[in-house]
Specification:
The complex is a heterodimer. By secondary structure, chain A is α/β, with parallel strands linked by helices. Chain A has three domains: 8-100, Beta Barrel (Elongation Factor Tu (Ef-tu), domain 3), CATH 2.40.30; 111-211, Nucleotide-binding domain of ferredoxin-NADP reductase (FNR) module (Rossmann fold), CATH 3.40.50; 219-260, Dihydroorotate dehydrogenase, electron transfer subunit (Dihydroorotate dehydrogenase B (pyrk subunit), domain 3, Ribbon). Chain A is built from six helices and 16 strands. Chain B is built from nine helices and 14 strands. Classes of the chains: A alpha/beta, B alpha/beta. The complex binds flavin-adenine dinucleotide (FAD), flavin mononucleotide and FE2/S2 (inorganic) cluster (FES).
Chain lengths: 260, 296
């Protein structure tokens, strides 16, 4: 038996549930016992959804921020489980297993760090950017969305660092995908950290490789246990199949076998 | 039970509790009767491609396909970490021929802190063997016969529910010297993504687990209890203390908790405590009093 516990099962209360746009909400949670576990940027939680019938497993959700004793989760309502999270109200209780996964290597990062996010994939970048700034690195955010209203938490990102935006319809920032942003041609970054849909992460990985920049991606493979026990969430790597929930979700692109 | 000394009737099911190490933050191993570690094969296996999991109503499908680093890696690198665990550590053994089942079992026979193996003749997720043995009396008997010669400690045989008559298979493995049978493994299933028009799992089909399969499992435990004299370990969809009691009343001397560990990583310890409380509340001194009570 180990002497200290790393992972915990914990009850939280919903402090607030704010609509960010028609598909996304921001939940601010506070631990009932007042004890927030130590959390690294890029780690995630396994949430027990209040929807009982067809959602039976916990849902993996990234940690968006830790601030003032509160844990923030950004949830995109796509199925029964996430819709039930979106319907939570102030004062409701919710059970989490946390903290899970390895997280971004923010503690070692120096210099100008590009944090690229698409859609709800921006979630872990806020806390990562904050940590980077705290330790003297320069976070630059590149956020992509279909349209202006989909660029979530823009004001919060702007408080931390420079924010570059692309929208597919051109309603905000430059028109196109994140990899088409002009900054990528004009500037050199010391490291890139990415979270978003897989095609986007692959495109960014391709850019990183061609510009010889170190790059980490955060994967969202389907999970059951979140603890490294079931082997459902595996990703092919240079070391063979490994669990995204314990050896990830963050991987250096050198570790992956993506055809890029 | 069957030469094993169990602190209590609660164990954890293979493939759902890792090597126990993954759950040490949540459950004191000393609370459990035993843990059954991941499926182990003679040679390393990479398992099936992703996606390996699909959620279904009150359950999940998986097609992990016995990913493991092989029995020699287990003996050299994992066993040393499990030696001092304060519970029975039982290894789940799989194979593709009676000979390699037996060879794998013989290596585990040499590990002094492993008191038993659970033979998996029922994995629905690998092409080369596994369940093929578990679905006929002859196949099941041939594996148990070969392993019985090579393995001298407690031999548990895990049965497949994907058969016409599970009682016949149970009788066949009992006749070849199984000390105990455990049931059920997962039920073969399929789920389709109607937008993509393709199966959700990489190999098409997978094994269904979770509360969705519990009534099937309870029925099979009861059927087997009437057919064999060896003790039975019941599993399939156990989420609560009450579920565990139900299996025991159907004829199980012990139970395994599987998929429930994913929803509440501490649940196995809670069920172990819960059974004691239930027995106290019903003024029952010995848990064996309820085993198979519906058959009396
Ligand atoms: C490490 C990690 C971090 C994540 N972080 C966030 C986050 O910060 N915010 C957020 O909104 N979502 C996040 N997700 C995705 C989220 O877990 C899924 O959207 C959620 O589980 C869907 O559940 P549901 O019951 O609402 O939908 P379901 O009805 O179960 O599924 C709806 C659709 O989502 C897909 N899906 C289901 N489960 C997952 C899954 N685990 N991963 C990816 N796709 C899935 C299904 O294939 C289906 O197409 C994360 C996933 C992982 C693995
Ligand atoms: C992800 C996963 C992996 C499994 N791997 C194994 C295995 O390696 N060997 C085995 O005998 N059973 C395996 N099983 C089956 C379980 O041990 C158990 O028999 C089954 O899930 C039914 O119990 P449950 O409904 O309580 O989970 C696995 C089940 C799951 C969900
Ligand atoms: S989700 Fe179970 S091993 Fe990763």
């Amino acid at each position: 038996m180990r002497f200290f516990k790393m992972k915990q099962i914990k009850d939280f209360t919903v402090v607030s549930n704010n609509r960010l746009d028609e598909r996304n909400v921001l939940l601010r949670l506070s631990p009932i016992d007042g004890q927030m576990p130590a959390i690294k940027p890029g780690q995630f939680v396994q949430v027990q959804s209040p929807a009982k019938d067809n959602t039976f497993l916990r849902l993996p959700i990234s940690i968006n921020n830790v601030e003032d004793g509160q844990l923030w989760l950004m949830v995109q309502m796509i199925g029964d489980g996430t819709k039930a999270l979106g319907a939570l109200r102030e004062g409701d209780r919710i059970n989490l297993v946390l903290p899970l996964g390895n997280g971004f290597s923010t503690d070692k990062a120096k210099g100008k760090i590009l944090l690229v996010g698409g859609g709800v994939g921006i979630a872990p970048l806020l806390y990562a950017g904050k940590k980077l700034k705290d330790q003297g690195a320069e976070p630059v955010f590149l956020l992509g969305a279909r349209t202006a209203s989909g660029v979530l938490e823009r004001d919060l990102f702007e408080q931390i660092g420079r924010v570059l935006i692309t929208t597919e319809d051109g309603s905000l920032g430059e028109r196109g995908f994140v990899t088409q942003h002009s900054a990528l041609q004009q500037e050199k970054f010391d490291k890139i950290m990415v979270c978003g849909p897989k095609p986007m992460m692959m495109a960014v990985a391709r850019y990183a490789k061609s510009s010889d920049t170190d790059c980490e991606v955060s994967l969202e493979n389907m999970m059951a246990c979140g603890l490294g026990a079931c082997l459902c969430c595996v990703e092919k790597t240079v070391k063979g199949n490994v669990c995204v929930c314990t050896e990830g979700p963050v991987f250096n692109i050198n570790q992956l076998t993506w055809q890029i | 039970m069957a030469g094993l000394s169990l602190r209590n009737p609660v164990m954890t099911a293979s493939g759902t509790f890792g090597y126990g190490l993954e759950f040490e933050d949540f459950v004191p191993m000393s609370k459990l009767g035993g843990i059954i570690v991941k499926g182990t094969t003679l040679l390393p296996r990479e398992g099936n491609d992703y996606p390996r999991m699909a959620e279904t109503a009150s359950g999940m499908l998986n097609c992990v396909g016995l990913q493991n680093k092989g029995v020699n890696y287990f003996a050299e690198h994992i066993y040393p970490q499990l030696r001092d665990m304060d519970t029975n550590v039982i290894v789940n053994v799989s194979g593709s021929s009676p000979e390699n089942y037996a060879e794998c079992a013989a290596i585990i026979d040499g590990l002094d802190k492993i008191p038993a193996i659970e033979l998996n003749i029922s994995c629905p997720n690998v092409k080369d063997g596994g369940m093929a043995f578990g679905v006929t009396c002859e196949g099941a008997a041939s594996v148990v016969k070969a392993v019985r010669r090579a393995y001298h400690k407690t031999l548990i045989v895990k049965l497949s529910p994907n058969v016409t008559n599970i009682a016949d298979i149970a009788r066949a493995v009992e006749a070849e010297g199984a000390d105990c049978v455990s049931l059920i493994n997962t039920l073969m299933g399929m789920s389709i993504d109607i937008e993509k028009r393709c199966p959700r799992l990489s190999i098409g089909t997978g094994g269904l687990s979770g509360p969705a399969i519990k009534p099937v499992a309870v029925r099979m435990v009861n059927q087997v209890a009437k057919a064999v004299r060896v003790p039975i370990i019941g599993l399939g969809g156990i989420m609560t203390t009450e579920d565990a009691i139900e299996f025991m009343m159907a004829g199980a001397s012990a139970i395994e908790v599987g998929t429930a560990n994913f929803i509440d990583p501490a649940v196995s310890g809670k069920i172990a405590d819960g059974i004691n409380h239930w027995l106290d509340a019903h003024s029952i001194n010995d848990v064996n009093e309820i085993v198979g009570i519906i058959n009396q």
